[in-house]
Amino acid sequence: MVGLKEELLKSIWHAFTALDLDRSGKVSKSQLKVLSHNLCTVLNVPHDPVALEEHFRDDDEGPVSNQGYMPYLNKFILEKVQGNFDKVEFNRMCWTLCAKKNLSKSPLLISDEDAFKVWVLFNFLSEDKYPLIIVPEEIEYLLKKLTEAMGAGWQQEQFDHYKIALNTSREGLSAWELIDLIGSGQFSKGMDRQTVSMAINEVFNELILDVLKQGYMLKKGHKRKNWMERWFVLKPNIISYYVSEDLKDKKGDIILDGNCCVEALPDKDGKKCLFLIKCLDKSFEISASDKKKKQEWIQAIQTTVNLLRVGSPPPHKEARQKRKELRQKLLAEHEELERQMKELQTANENKQKELETVRKQLEAAAARAAEEEKKRLQTQVELQDRFSLELEREKMVRQKMEEQVAQKSSELEQYLQRVRELEEMYKQLQGALEDEKQARQDEETVRKLQARLLEEESAKRAELEKWHLQQQQTIQMTEAEKQELENQRMIKEQALQVAMQQLKQLELERKEALEQYEEVKKKLETAANNTKSWKDKVAHHEGLIRLIEPGETITRTIFDESGAWPGKGIPVLLTASGREVIICS
After folding, report:
1. pTM score, two decimals?
2. Where is the PH domain positioned along the sequence (predicted)?
């Protein structure tokens, strides 16, 4: 009953939309009352005017929409349908309401009766969604059936071109577009109107009226035992026979069920191609026109009985249901594929975002590394400048000391002539001692500089190890990321090699600074030795000293081992003979 209800709703939908003149989706109550009354009449449903008036009360305002009409239609009409009505009469009533409004005004190669049958075929093959359309697969099925009924060859390539053009603009055709397509003769070229009309009628009988097979055969009477020619029509559960094929004078029915059977009979009484249909209460002897027809009828009847035994629907309805299920399955697979594609696209976009984030992080790390390298180079330049300045200063000090030594040597030659020059020489000696002190401070400065270079070298080495660790972590990424980041890793390796070279250069510079520091230290020791030697020479010059007179009270002050004077008392020197001498001031 559910399938019957869906088929009835399709024809009623056409009638309802035809009454919707302004295409607002609503129909006036008076028109719906007339439509409901006509539906009850053609469907053999008891008409309930009280329920009709109650549902469409006059105090309701405005027309009624399709959703508003459906509750009444389901409750008082469709749920009461028993199937004992004329489908053709029902469809013709709905066709009458909608044909005049929607049928094309241009001349067609088919009659209005054929257009009506195509419209009914459309309702049978259309999808169960509104507005109703027939999909390209069902159009191909219908056109193939019509071409086969006309005895022509199917032009698959021609339909493929039409299908491509149709799919680019819409999902399918409406009923009126299907009528225009068949009526235009696009797929029935070379066929006359009568052939097309007979093909439409044959397909209509098969799909709508459930006519599985029909034709003239001889039937043996039960009372007179005479043979009469009858027009037999095979349907899913009955075989009807008429006087002629116009179906006006029906002579009887053969009720089929799962207990029936059909078997071939030998020729007898001058009749050939005999077969017997056995039912529970009666048997029927039939004579076909030839062996081929006999075999076709036996096979058709046996197939019908087998379907009744298993409770299967007619072949064309079962095939339509399978086609719908296949389309639904393909649609579900297509939707699942689209969902998976969207998920993959989303995952790909997320991956691209992650890669972009990693790229930005690498760029930021490279920028930080470049900035740190720039600072390191700047620090190195500053250290070089400072070291050059210190070297220049040391050179000036050394030159000055050399000049002082030369001057002291000249003064030593004049010790016997100039007593006062000794005091000047003493002042110069004190200046040399100050220079030595300054040199020691410079030595300390160089040592601190070396320590800082070592700390910078250690920090740089730790930073390089950190970069190397980051590089190793980057290498452990996924294989797809490894391929994309390979070039950036090579760049970092090159940067690492450059940094290592710079570190080696810095190590060489530190060693050179250490060597220079050792040289300066040796020079300072040499200068100290020279100063001590010079002091000894001064002590031996007895022409510039005077003996200590007896009875004089002096303060004894002796130079320490380094030759420095403590600065208190009178400077006293010990001669080689052990006598104390006072240095003149």
Report:
1. 0.57
2. 210-306
